[in-house]
Structure formats: C-alpha cells, structure tokens
UniProtKB/TrEMBL annotation:
Pfam families registered for this protein in UniProt: Glyco_hydro_19
Keyword terms of this UniProt record: Hydrolase
Superkingdom of the source species: Bacteria
Stated name of the protein: Glycoside hydrolase family 19 protein
Coiled coil (UniProt feature): none
C-alpha cells in the first residue's frame, strides 16, 4: 500500500505526502460535499498526524473506512435518527430524561452518550456536555474522532488489520460490519493493496 497510489487514484500529484489536497479529494470521493470535504480535511490534516493515524497506510485505511461507515460517506455529522433509542442507557451515561436525543451520535465517528460527551469534552478542553451540538461541526468532530481512535488503542488494532475488534470498539457490537469491511477494501484498493 502506498499514499502515492492513493494520490494517483485521486488524480493528484503523487508526492506520497498526505495533506489537505489529498484528504479533501478522498472525502469527496467517499461522498462528502466540497464544503464538508474541505472542513474535514483541514482538521484531519492536523489531528491525524497528532494521533499518529498517518504513521502508516493500514491505520489510515481503517480510520477512514470506519468513519466513512459511521457518517454515511461523510454526508452526516449528526445521527439521522432522533436518539430516543439511547434514552436511559446507563452504559452511555444517559441517566436524565432527554439524554438520548441530546447526546445522540455526532461527528464522523458518531460520538454517543452523555458519558462520552463529558469525557471527550473534558479531555479536549471543550464543553461538549453543555453544548453537544458542537461535536457535529466537521472540524470538532474530526478532532473527537482522532482522539477517540487513539484513546481506544485503535492504531494498534489497525496495525494488526483487525476490522472486527475495531468495529466492536467503535460500535459496541458489530453493526454494519459488512459495510465497514467493504469500505476498508475500497480504501485499500485506492492505496494499491490489490
């Protein structure tokens, strides 16, 4: 696999260095609008480096594939469903009436639950618990996704090419595993794996 192959597949200069142009083109290819692709790429270009996701192609492939699944091809930064299914889910920290809707999935990784909004807000110095809607901003959501990825040891699981374990860490189960695997193959193909 090679970032040069990815750049060639996206019709870009193949210098092998993933930057904003490469990320913008990839997000667009996977379904994002131009504006959304630009916003995501701006944040991803910084935060994917900080959280060592760009250290190798396998980490990159798994990260992008999981986020592409969670966000419907980077089209949705907020869960389409109301979130009422998460009401009173103590495993998510949803203990008060309205928490399910208030702390529904947001950002490209679909951060869900009061406990996660509190945890990631506090660790990033942002008040997500009182302002949950800001996680839906593409730049903030990408930061959260990168932090969540690193905090949950997903770089190491990606290094082992373990899509099942990564899916369980992100989803809590294996919902959408087939689509996650399909998206992973798409990214690997763009990277020249096959």
């Amino acid at each position: 696999m090679s970032f040069k192959n990815l750049q060639k597949a996206l019709g870009l200069d193949d210098d092998g260095v993933v930057g904003r142009a490469t990320l913008t083109a990839l997000f667009k290819r996977l379904g994002a609008s131009q504006t959304r692709a630009d916003e995501l790429a701006l944040a991803a270009n910084v935060h994917m480096r900080t959280y060592r996701i760009l250290d190798n192609e396998l980490r990159f492939a798994h990260f992008i594939a999981q986020l592409a699944h969670e966000s419907g091809g980077f089209k949705y930064m907020e869960e389409i469903a109301s979130g009422s299914a998460y009401e009173y889910r103590s495993d998510l920290g949803n203990t008060q009436k309205g928490d399910g809707t208030r702390y529904k999935g947001r950002g490209p990784i679909q951060l869900t639950g009061r406990a996660n909004y509190r945890k990631y807000g506090q660790s990033l110095g942002l008040d997500f618990e009182n302002n949950p809607q800001i996680v839906a901003l593409p730049s903030i959501g990408m930061l959260v996704a990168c932090k969540y990825w690193a905090d949950n040891g997903l770089n190491e699981l990606a290094d082992k090419d373990d899509v099942l374990a990564i899916t369980r860490k992100i989803n809590g189960g294996v919902n959408g595993l087939g689509d996650r695997k399909a998206k992973l193959e798409i990214i690997k193909n763009l990277l020249g794996k096959n």
